[in-house]
Predict the structure.
Amino acid sequence: MRYEELETLLRRWKITIVPKEQKRIRGHDVDTYRRLAKQTEQIDYDCIFLNGGGCNGRSRGPNGCCTPARCAETLGYWRREGGTLDDDTARRLAGPYDPDTGFLRDGTGCALPRELRSPTCLFIYCSDAKMTDDDKILLAQIQYGAYMLR
Ligand code: SF4
């Protein structure tokens, strides 16, 4: 999608685009959030995106947590982040966003790099069987916010 189209969509959803310096994601500034989010690459979510792009869905029924419609209508769950989106993230999300399938791709899963995924997308998991204690602390920092670092 072109950025201008995403701007229009965000307006319709009543999401305000703000400067990157102003945006806080669960209390983290954008760069700090992205640094934490990128670290989730080391986490084994015990999730296999081989089912047509869907997840294992162990605890959430056959649709799993990522479905094309849900990803599209929530903008990869960024719509839940306080009614604002920073301009830099919006520009990066626009290209890979598909109004029908969001960021989910058949057979390969999520098209977004970890640092651009929302807290919801990074935190939700069906199994922590392969996670270390440090992995769980990192996910808690993402989900519960900046106060976890103090
Ligand atoms: S952005 Fe990625 S992880 Fe989040 S719902 Fe969409 S496909 Fe799933």
